[in-house]
Structure formats: structure tokens, C-alpha cells
Amino acid sequence: MSSSICWQCFSKTLPQPFRHGSIKPQLPIYFPTLAFSTTTSFQLPLPPKKSSGVKVTPRKGIKSLVIKKGKKQLENRARRPAPGERKALRKRIVLSNVNALEVQGMQNIDVENMYDRRMEGQVLRLPGPIVDQLRAVEAFKTTQSWGLFQSPGTLMRRETVDMGKLIADMSEEGGSRKTVRRVLVGEKGSGKSMMLLQAMTMAFLKGWTVINLPEAQDITIGHTPYQPLPSSSPPSYTQPAYLTNLLRNLPTANPHLETLQFSQPTSLELPIPIPPNISLARLASLGASDPEIAYPIFNLLITNLLSPGRPPVFLGLDGLAHAMQPGTGYTAPNLKPIHPHELMILEWYFRFLSGQQRLPNGGIVMAATSQSNAPKVPSLDLALSELEGSITTRAGQSVPKKERNPFVRYDERVLNTLKTGGGVQVQRLQGLSKEEARGLMEYWAKSGMVRERVSEGFVGEKWAISGGGVVGELERAVVRMRV
User: Fold this and answer.
1) Is the CB of residue 186 less than 8 Å from the CB of residue 387?
2) Whole-prediction pTM
3) Are 386 and 202 in contact (CB under 8 A)?
4) CA distance to 11, 216, 236, 264, 343, per residue, from 332 (Å)
5) Whether pLDDT at 40 is above 90
6) DSSP string, 294-339
7) Residues whose CB is less than 8 angstroms from the CB of residue 83 and which lie 6 or more positions away in sequence, other chains included
8) Partners of 425 in the beta sheet?
């Protein structure tokens, strides 16, 4: 049976590729896809992993690469200071200022005017050779204002003139060959270290032999090598490096040692073969060349300096409280702190200060206390108070005497060194008088450090502000303070 729909009509209802007469199959359209792979896709990154908070450390023996993320730290390319460079910068002393005005008519201190009463209240210049000698004994302090003026100078106060008169009398032919033992005390800024420097200056002018221990803290703080002395009872300790430095500076500080010949004592053995007829300066240089022989050479040198016919000797020490405290920074073999009096150099000095040993040719043993850098030592305070009980101040006031505290343990070594009746004098430095303060301020004005006119009212005002003429406070009020 035939269909009622023709083939042409039926073919119109079919899709175009299947039309009659052009039955040509059309290829399917494929979209580009990647082949199957088990590796990570390069187009889509993996999602971030959640941190568990537990840091996994590599196993022992396995090296791991650690890449630090973040800002790269800048490398410090600055030159590191050489050993001892910081200390040299900290202890550097500047003694002149080319920008300061030159004081016209300023006199040098010499053997004639150092005890002249007409020089009281005037500032005298330190000569060049004396400055080099004072540098060798480290008499200058970093707290002193040497760098504000063109040349170093010192004020001739009443106590300075008295010291000059004492040194001049002891230096005369047939003069007194006594040993003067003195301790300088006073409040902060009263000029104790400056008084010690002035005494050494006058001793240099008179040709004395000066041996100075510039700071007792450097001896007791525990920064230098030390070793016990063999066959010493009670035990004593020496510091070879410190003695080496001391012997190295002695010929520079005392040029007259070149003219003094060495004589071998019979009681001491020579550590090394010493040539005959050498000078004491050469002997000190031999001891400075080897720390192992510094101690025996030091004993030989001191024995020769104390022999008859030698010049008088000046022994100085600054920072007395550090040498009187109960312990030091050094430790004994029984793990206990070493007492300062067990250190050889301090024990040698205190023999002369206490009077156990005298200076045969005369001389001065002087120590200065410090109020700005000093530990609290009740034994030293009590000993100085007992010695100072009968001394009156410039204003006529008596210094109160301290009583023993039954709850404080005192050091008998300190009390025996500064015992009453042992010949130790205590000199308390007070403030300057108004005449001395005026002379000092006029020197500051001539150097360009004071802009105001130095009148009676100006002097009285600054003298009162500085606590009655205390030198350190006077300098702070006049020179350093700017309104």
C-alpha cells in the first residue's frame, strides 16, 4: 500500500544533512581538551594548604633548605673598633682649643712664683715640658674642662700656695727631710683631683721623683691579669701588666732618672743579668719590656730611689675609697674576694701612707677621695672622721665627729692605715673665696667663655649660686650654663 505523503515532502521535515541527494555526514565539532595525566595542572594552581600550626623539624642528619621570606636585612659594613680603641677614646684628654682666645699677659708657673702670696687668685699656665710629664703620670681627668681654653692653666688658691711653700722648703739644702702624709677630702667638685695635679706640678718643677696611681678603681676592678707572689705570708698578689705600664711611663715622667746610676743592693737578687752603671731610666725600661720581671725590677728601682742622696719622692693616689673597700674584682684560690691591701701595688703604697715605712730623702704621700665615683666604705668614713675631729673649716666651723655604729662591721686594715696619731693629715677643701672666684672668672672672660661683665654683683651672684665658691659648681654656673 502506497503512502499518501510523497517523498519530497517527507524529506523537508528531516534535518539538513540528511536531505535526499546530499547525504554527506558532517563531522562533529570537538573542543580542545588536555590529555589525561596524573601530574598537577599548570593552568589551575592547587588550593593553599591549611597550616597545622606544628613546625616540622628535619630529622637528625638530614639537611633542609630554609628560605627566609620577607624584607632582606641590610648588612652592617661599618668597621669594628680595634681592641682598646673605645677605651682610648673614652680616656682621651684634649688640653688645648685653637678657637679659644689667647690670654694676654698670662704667666707660667715656675719655682719662683709657685709659693708667692701675690699669685693667689690668679691663673698660671702650665709649661709645655710639665704638661708632657703630667700626661705620663695620667694626672689629667676627663671631667676637667681643659679643652675649653687655648692652653692649660691652673688657679693659685690659698691651699695651692701653701703646698708650694711646703715643697720649696723640703727641697732646700739642709731642709726638712720629713715625710708628709695627707688625705684630701671635700664635697663633689671642690678641686681634690686638681689639688693633686698642682702638687705633682710643683714636685716636677723641683726635680722630685713622682710616682702616681691615677685611679684606684683601675687596680681593684678586676680588669688586669694577676698572679700570687711565691712565698708571701700573708698572701699577696701582683699585677704584671699594670706594673709594666707603670714602669714604661716612669722615664717619661721623670727625665732626671737618666742621670741617676743604678747600684745593686745586697739584699735583693737580680732577676736577669743587669749591665753595670746603667741609669735608672734604662732599668725601668728593662722591667717594662717583660711582664714576668716587672715586679722584681720595680723593687730594685724603688730601693735605688730610696737610697741616700736621691731626690725626694712624691707618691700620689686618686680614688681612695676603691682601695679601702672590703673586696675587689679578683678571686683567691679559696674562691673568696681578694682584699685591696693584698694587691702588691696598693700594699706598697699604704706602707708609706700609714707610716710603717718612711721616705729617707723626704717626700709627700698624698691621696685624694672622690665623691662622684666612690663606693660606700663605712670604715674609711669613720677613720677620716676621727682624724678630722679637731680640724675647723675656713668659716670657723668644726667638723662633727662620727661615732662607731655597733651594727656595722668595720675593717681593721683600713682603721690601722688611717689610725689617729699615725701622722696622717686630713685636708678638707672648701669653696673658693670671692677674690679667688673673681680671678677665675676674669680668666674665663679673657678666654672668651664669659660674655657678661665681671662685676662685683656678677661675682657675688655666681659665688652664691655655686654653694659658696665650689669650683665645679662655679664652672657650671658661669661657663656651661646658657639661658
Assistant:
1) no
2) 0.81
3) no
4) 123, 19, 10, 34, 11
5) no
6) HHHHHHHHHHHHTSTTPPPEEEEEE-GGGGTSS--S-B-TTS-BPP
7) none
8) 182
